[in-house]
Specification:
CATH architecture of one domain: 2-Layer Sandwich
CATH topology of one domain: 60s Ribosomal Protein L30, Chain: A
Largest sheet: 6 strands, mixed
Helix content: 25-40%
Strand content: 15-25%
Order of helices and strands: HEHEEHEHEE
CATH class of one domain: Alpha Beta
Shape: elongated
Number of strands: 6
Oligomer: single chain
Number of helices: 4
CATH superfamily of one domain: RutC-like
């Protein structure tokens, strides 16, 4: 067997020189290129949202409070800051989440993931104590079909006085017919 470039390749018996004619190759290339715009039209759109009063996030800080790509909505961190008690700050944060979701066409029911960053806890025991205060507010906004949730302790947040910051991911429409095949826990003492 020879050592040329064609060594090891099989010749296609349908074509006299073993390769399709140049006109056929060009036709295939042109057809492939002609279909590219169709694929580009199917690409999801990307929309950026900033509620009134939050435009500086986009223009000055160069981040978007809410990004929507197709049916996915990503909400940047919302701080639990401002005046009031811990509970009042956290409740305002969840209310703000609802407003951010709404402008992109989503709702609390569509939230599939939360990440919360907490400044108060310094160890597992203090984290559990904070959760005793945080959980009832969380449950009021997510009474069923809970989103995935990661809670992270941190030493500081960008917003002065913030006790928690929360980001979220939602899939528009996913809250219409959620399914949770999770067995119930056995009764205590059994």
């Amino acid at each position: 067997m020879g050592h040329g470039a064609s060594a090891g390749r099989r010749r296609d018996s349908r074509f006299p020189d073993g390769a399709p004619p140049m006109s056929l190759r060009l036709t295939c290339l042109l057809l492939s290129l002609a279909t590219l715009p169709a694929f580009a039209q199917d690409a999801p759109t990307r929309e950026h949202f900033a509620r009134a009063g939050h435009e500086a996030a986009y223009h000055d800080w160069h981040y978007t409070p809410v990004v929507k790509v197709g049916d996915m909505v990503i909400v940047s961190g919302i701080p639990a800051a401002g005046p009031g008690t811990y509970e009042e700050k956290v409740r305002r944060m969840f209310v703000a989440l609802g407003k951010e979701l709404e402008q992109a066409g989503a709702s609390y029911a569509d939230v599939v993931e939360l990440t919360t960053f907490h400044t108060g806890p310094t160890d597992p025991q203090s984290f559990q104590a904070e959760f005793a205060r945080f959980a009832p507010i969380h449950h009021a906004f997510f009474p069923t079909h809970y989103p995935a949730w990661s809670a992270v302790g941190t030493s500081a947040l960008l917003s002065p006085g913030a006790v928690v910051e929360m980001r979220a991911v939602a899939m528009i429409g996913s809250g219409r017919a959620p399914k949770a095949d999770i067995p119930k826990l056995p009764a205590a003492g059994h």
